[in-house]
Structure formats: structure tokens, C-alpha cells
Amino acid sequence: MNTSKRQRVLSMSAVAVGATVLGLVLAGGLGLTPHSAAREAGPAVAAAAPCTAQTGYPDFATLAERVNPSVVSVYTEEVVKPQETRRFHGDMDPFEFFFGPGFPRPDMGRPQKRAGAGSGFFISSDGLIVTNNHVVEGADKVWVRIAEGSDRVAAKVVGRDPATDVALIKIDAPKPYTPLPLGDSSTLRVGDWVMAVGNPLAMEHTVTVGVVSAKNRALGLSEATRSFENFIQTDAAINLGNSGGPLVNLCGQVVGMNTAINAAGQNLGFAIPVNTIKSVLPQLKEKGKVIRGYLGVTITNLDQKAQEAFKLPSRDGALVESVSRPGPADKAGIKAGDVIVAVDGTPVKETRQLIDHVSAIAPGRKTELEVIRDGKRQTFSVVLGERPDAEGDQTASTPSDNTPTSKLGLKVDDLSARARRQFEVPREVEGVVVTDVSDSSPADEAGLRAGDIIMRIDSHDVTSQQEFTDALSALRSGTMVRLYVYRPQTEQKSFVFLRLP
Description:
This protein is an alpha+beta fold.
């Protein structure tokens, strides 16, 4: 992983962003536009034949000899203003904390240099190198060391994609380099042998081996990468500084790029699938960035509760939780609660398929979405946009114990002007405000909290406490109900599913 200030190190509940080792600073909507369908990265990139299964114990020594010459160490330097280097615990200045404001500083006015390190690997003989975006992001200077003991060579950043955390850099040198062939991460199986090579803790060309522990991991590293995360999990040891190094199969083909670790556990490393890397390389080479199609929706996979609540024949599809306004999907008539089951005639079984398909389409082009709305199939034509860079008095109701509302364990009231001010609810949001939730009730177990705004019950909009009660009363006991909820704290809309007692 990268040893720069942007190192992504997972803890049990968050991403750690800082440490110091060997004198280096070690740190390591959806918009619907994650990595696009895998495309070949052009003739300059090494191609890979299918890797056939091997019998017997792997010859890791021979594999390391083959891979190591193509792996490089990446070093960076960033010049930081003094005020940017003295911050800790939010905006507190440690110098002022100990000595008080106005006390003369020994470093007053002097820019500070921040060093970082990571890994990378050649993908073409002319010096193109793939690494993580967080390794080189913000760097004023980038160098590459090809072999231990050799001089550092200056490198230039060709392109960066924060959304997939992939960057392309290049060095100019008189001799050709040996690129690593790019494999096919879709053929990986849990339990397959893999090897990680890189620059952990500034220990160049370190080799570790293990297996693929899991696939399709989402870690929530950042808002920019949230929709794009599809990590390969491996128990091959990955440490600070491994970021950008290759994860290869037994044929010496790159199947992933080492990116993150879980600092709270042992042998929990994560790599970006090589198919994600291949999908962005052409645009990084040509444009220096990646331009993706954009629907402007937040989607989620369907589970058993959602299937039952929406009365769907299967869990295939992507549930639309919210629609950005104005946005391409909104202009086309897509609504929250729609279940997208096909895109341009291709069935959608889960969100990843929809994301990949839309991301691969250029902005301005038209795409056809087939959705299920209230049990009926409809088709909408959407002109894709370009994905933005990641860079009154309140009186509580007191329903009787026999009402559906009380059985759910919640109290609601009209969304008055006072409630809007109290909970900072936007003017366009209509519904009823949750004023209380009973412990261990169905509403509590479903995640409802005081301050939530319930906008809809099933397909019925509710704008008053009476409409909410009437809509619930019309439902039979035991029915799975879907509530469409706005949460002012996070400014997000989502569905909540619960069963009427």
C-alpha cells in the first residue's frame, strides 16, 4: 500500500490515514458510474493467454524471478504549506496548544516536504507503469526505482482516476522494459494461488504468497470509490507501501493491484481487479482521466424483504432508492421504487451489471432501461449525462395500542413548519415526521429513528399523519410493507422494509 498521506488502511470501523515508518510519512451518488466493462488497453499493453490450471506444488521461486524485473518502487514528494503540516485533532494547532498563540515558531513560513512511497508495475515496453491513484495524488515530484541499488528515475503522471484508484505514470529511458501481461480477474476462483510483489515499508521487491480469500468485497474507503469497489481479498501479506504493486496468478499474469489492508486483522489484503484496470487504461492514456456515463440514481441489490414488499417474481434487478434532480434518470421519468431489470436488452441481475454497462457508455448517448413499477414492466429511454468528478407547531400523536402505527412501535406527526426547521427538512420533501420509536419494536429493528421523514407507504404518498394511519390500516396483518424514508441527518432517501404485526 502507499506510504503517502493518502494511504487507505482499514480499521474495524474506519480508514486510518497516517503513520510514520523508516523516516517516511506512512499513510497510506452512486452517480452510477463505477468501472466499465473490461476492454483491452491497446496494443502497447501486454496481452495474456488464458492461464491453465497447474498440478503439483507451485514453483514460487521461478515465478518471482519472472515477475520481479517488471515491478518498480514509486517514491513521491509533496511540498506542503506550514499550516497544513501542523494540524491535528481537527483544526487544533499543536504548537499553539503547548506554547500559546503568537509564540515565535522555528519553522514559521517554511514549506515542508512530505515523502511517500508505493509500488507499480510495467504494462508496456516503452515505460508505462500502473500504480494506485492515492500513491501519486497531490505529489509534486514522482520517481521510480527499477532495481534495488539503482538510481531513481523521474516519472510523469499520464492520467489518474480517483473513482477506481488507478493511475498511469511513465518513465523515459533508453532501453525497453519487460511488461507484465494483464490477465482476466473474472476467471479467479476463491482458493486460487496468488503472489503479491511490491515495496512494503520501503523494503523493495518483497514477495509474499497466499490465496484468493474472497471476491467482490466493498470496503467503503471513500465517497469517490464507493460505487466502484469490487475488491479481491487475499491472505498474501500486504503492508504499507504495497499499494500499486501487482497481484499475479501462477502464470505470472496480473489479476489485481494491491490497494488496501485491514489494520485490525492479519492477512486481510485487498486488490483492485485487473479487469477494472483494463477498463480505464485507454482513457487514461488518451485523455488523462476517465469520462463515464451517468444516470443520476442511487441503487441497491434486492433482498428477500424487498422482493416480498415489491411483490417481485425474483431478486433480479437493481432497486432505485433515490433519483437526483435534475438528472438524466429524473428527466426520463425514472422514480424511486422502480426496479431496473434490463439495460439495452441485457438482463440486470444485480447492481454491478447495471453500473458496468452504463459506465462503458459515453455521455450524450441514449440507453434503454426496462423497469418494474407497481408490478408492471415499462421501458424508459435515458440520455446519459457525464458523471461528476469525485474529486406550524408540532404536536405528537398518541395513537391507541390497537392501531397499526402503535403496533409498529412508532409515533408520527404532520411535517409542520416548526418540524422542518428543527430537523432541517428541504421544502420539496413531503411526508410525516417520526417523533418516537419504541425499543425492540418492528420499527426499531428496521432502523427507523426519530426525525426520519416517511414520504411513502408502498406506492402511496403520505403528506399527513391521518394519511399515514389510513394507508397502514388498509394493509393486512403480516404484510411486508415498504416505507420510503428521508433522513435529514445524512440527506439521503432510502427504503425501509418491515412486516405488520
